[in-house]
Each structure stands twice: as C-alpha cells, then as structure tokens.
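Example with several molecule types.
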Amino acid sequence: MKKLTIDSFRGKSVDEIKKTIKKNISAADPKINAYLEAFDIDKFEQGKGLLANIPFAVKDNILIKGMISSCASRMLADYKAPYSAFVIEKLLSEGAMITGRTNMDEFAMGSSTENSAFMTTKNPLNEEYVPGGSSGGSAAAVASGMCAFALGSDTGGSVRQPAAFCGIYGYKPTYGVFSRRGLVAYCSSFDQIGVLANSIEDIAMVSSVMNDKDPYDLTSYLDRELKELGKIKYTDSVFKSGIIGVVNTFEGIPVSPEIEASYKKLVGELRKMNLEVVNISPPFLEYAIPLYYVLSAAEAASNLARFDGVKYAFNKRSASYQKLLMKTRGEGFGREVKRRIMLGTFVTSSGYKDEFYKKANRLRTNMKKSYDALFSNIDYMLLPTTPTPPFKLGEKIDDPVAMYYSDAFTTFANIIGIPALSIPYDTDPKGLPIGMQVLSNVKRDVDLLTFCANLVRKLK
Amino acid sequence: MDIKVNKELLQKIMNLSKLEVSPAECSSFLEDFRNILLEMEKINNISGGMSSAFTVYQQVSNQYATSKKLDYSAEDILGMFPLSDSGVPMTPPILEGSDEKADD
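Resulting structure tokens for the full complex:
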C-alpha cells in the first residue's frame, strides 16, 4: 500500500492524478469503507494554485456546497449543504480536488468509527481492527493511498487517535487556527478542524492555506507565522533551545505494556539528542476524561437540540408536535448520540448543575492556569497518543466508559485549546501502529510543527 | 454525591432530552448511565476551591522540576511530601501562607 504525499503528485497531470486516485479507491475502499461517498472526480477541471490538483478527502461533518453532509447520522442522511465550510473554500481556491466525504462516528461522537449509522470503517493495516475515531474514515483514506491528505475534526482527540491507529500524522491546532464555519457543531468550545496526512510538511502546507481570520467565526484568528510557513526549516537549533517535558508515570491512567515500552524508548532517544528533557507531572490529567464528558455532553445536548424534525433533516410524522419531536429524535439519533444528549441534559439539569457542570467549568479554568504555568517552563510535552494500540472491531462498542478512555491522553488538549501533533512512531508485536503525541502551548503551532518535523528526521 | 440512577430518573432525563426510546433500549441505557455517572463523579474528588492537595503538589513539583537552577524530577519532589492517613498528599505549607512566616 503506497502512502501518498503532496510532493508525490507534483509534476503529474490532472488526468494522471485522477487515474491514480480512482484506481486506489476501487482497490481499497470496498474492503475498508473509508468513504461514505467517493465523488465523481472526472468532473474536476485543472486546478490552479499552491495545491493544484492535490486530492483530499473531507470528513462528513464539514460542509461542501451542494453535497450531502450527513455526519454519518440517519438524522442528516439526505441533508445537502447550502454553502461550503470556510476551510473548503480556502483549499478549493488553491486548486485542490475533493475526492469524497469520509465515514465517521455519528456527529463525531466515538473513538472507533463503529458509531456510524451507515457502515463500519476498518483499519487499512489490519481489517480486524478499528481505524480509531471519530475521523476514522479520513485516517483510513490517507493511510490506504485514497487521497494525499484529509480533513477531520478533533473535539477530544478525533484526529490524533485515528491518525495513531492508522500509522499517519494527525494535527489538532490551537483553538481558532481554522475557522469552524461549516463544521457541524458538536461541542463548540472544543471543536477544531484538523489535518491528517503522511508527512508534517504536508500538514504545514495545508494549514498555511486554511488558516485565516474568518469574519463569520469570531474565535478564528490569523496566525501570520503559520500563514507564511510554506516549507519547514530543518535545523538543529530547535533542539538546542527547546525544553521537552516527559512523564515517568501516566497519572493513574492504565497504559498497555506496548505503549509504555515505546514511550520509554522514545524518551531514551530524546535524551541522546542533547535535548533538555525534564520530568513533569501533567496537572489534572486523571480528571480530563470525566471533565471532558461532562462539558462536551452539555454542549452536545444544546447543539443537537436543533434537530427537532421541524426545521430540516429527518422527520417522523406524528399526530402532535410533542410526538413528532420525541419520535424524530428517538429514531434519528444513534445510541451513542442519545447517551451523550441524556448525559448533557442530566449534568445541566436543576439539582445537578452545581455538582457537575459548574464544577467542571471551574476545573477547566484551573486546568488552563496550571498548564500555562507548566508551559512557562517547558516548550513541548510528550505523551502517548493513545493508552493502547488499535483494538478489535466490536471489542469496546458495548462498554462506553472503556471506549471513552481511548482518549485519555488527547482530551485535555481540547479542554485547554493547545496544539498537538500525533506522530507514527512504532509498531506493536502484531505490527499495529503506535503513535506518540507532542503538545505545546497555545499559538505555538509553527514551533510545534517545526520541532516535530526535525525530530522525525532525526529519529529516522 | 449519592445519585440513585433508576428507571424513573432515566425516564425524566429522556423526557427532558426529547428522546423516545424503546423499552429494550431503555434497560441497557440504565446500565450505561450508571457506569458513566460513576466515572463523571470523579470530578467531585476535587475540593470546592479546585486545588486538591494532589494537584497542588503537581503544580509545585512541576515548577521545581522544570526550574533550570534545580535538578529535581517531579517524582523526587512528590516523594518529599507526606501523605495523609488516606494516602492523599497533604497541602505543602508554602501554599498556606506559612512561607512568609518562614522568611521571618
């Protein structure tokens, strides 16, 4: 299976690129189920710009004008987007070619892509295993050569975790680097669009195209350094000036022996590189999962209240408004979405709000302050991306809490809005990929990408 | 916090959430909901002021371990502080205002 990069398409004609993509999709997708819909790319005309004719896939919660955006939900099965997401407009303006919309966990709620209402995506490296989630379709498409890069969304690790499970790179930027206009909202204060690719150089190039201040998303901002990044600079000076924090223990989070051994191996390699490596204890890490699920469920319950069967989307006709509402939502949403709506309703309901929602919000503020203090002394932090290697299809689907803990090391980056990059580092004894995650403080995206690219080159 | 997760509570939440769920689905939701709430309740382990003794430790030890002047690991520093009878690290005096007294 050949992994494609942007550079691998340079100098090729648009027809050659189309031929390669169509061939790869027809060979791999019937087995993998990465695409909910592969587009007819023959309609694409010669592109112009930085990403001319570069094929990319889009997670099905990011709007593409005139195309269905289902969020892998029965609720939006026939919903056609009336406009394109800001990031899609940016990529199209540089000549990139959309290959299709990829499968995901319904409304981005899940860690295995098994929660899709339409099909289950399989890990391209071993079809008995999950590709991770919720951007599992995007990760599988990149890992199996069906596109050069893909867009995903990362609310609690949904770009980084599938990237780690499929052996590719996954980047979650600082909150606000990419506009969220046209991304279907799940948890607005955590949601970020992310990039999955086979190289950090590709992530840097795509990010420089997509970053801009969007007047329709007031949380977005222009990162001038990122905008002008273009090519990564390779220099040893990034190691001389950077301090990286590592952990000796995983703060009570159960980690598989394979992951622990890989992590220690990488820490050992870092120490040999003349990097300043210090031991840290990431504050509140053990509370990140409960905190994340309280806050994200509360926001999800609110964001998904719009699906009432009246305005648009799935509608279950009934005799009264109340019945229409209950039946539409009862039949339109899948199991995990219902769980989270119920949890969100509960933690914000009278009598429990103080114990859960308010407390979680205070904890979030405190967590942010603690990490600001920590990052005043270090530049980067290294953690495993996931506590275990990829797990088997069906293994955790009936145990929501076990599934939630797949994101034990990723959610805190969304809680405090910092950038993070998952790097394919190792494989377990079964040959399944193991990813490691480097994090930095807010608005240090360029430093993070540059550091990681240099690190990866050094590790090779 | 002692929350009784039973069918009544679940039905109330489903009504508030505007979700109609079949009886079969309802019983498995009950089990899931119990397990999830048990996990979510962990945030109540942190005191109202949001600085549990342990997290204060983490912050203090991070500050020391990452200071260029000192060569301590976070774990070394954590090990220097006493634990309470229940195994919870006790708040370092420096954070209770006694550092000023020490200076005197």
